[in-house]
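Q: Sequence in, structure out?
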Amino acid sequence: VQLVESGGGLVQPGGSLNLSCAASGFRFSSYAMSWHRQAPGEEREFVAFISNSGGSIKYADSVKGRFTISRDNTKNTVYLQMNSLKSEDTAVYYCKPNGIVRWGQGTQVTVSS
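A: Exactly. Output:
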C-alpha cells in the first residue's frame, strides 16, 4: 500500500488549495477514503470521508462548507479542495483508506499572512 499526498503549500487566509492523494497497492475502488490532519502539538484529527463510490460524504464540522472531498477511481486518486482557508487549518494533511492501517508522508498546509 502506497499513499502519496501532494498539493500543500503556503497560502494566505481566505485562499484555496487542492490536495491530491495518489494510491496504489490495493483495490482503490473498493475502499472508502478519508482525509485527516495533524497540527503541531495536536492529535491527528478527521477531516473528510468519501465512500468507495463517492455516494456518501462526511465532513468534520470545522471544515463543513469550505472543503470538498472527491475521488477519481480511474486514477486511483482522492482530492481535497480547500477554500476559505483559516490559520487554524494549518497542519500536515494525510489520506487513508478505511480499514487499512497505513499513512503516507502527508503534505504540509500553512495558512498565514
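The two ends are 37 Å apart (CA to CA).
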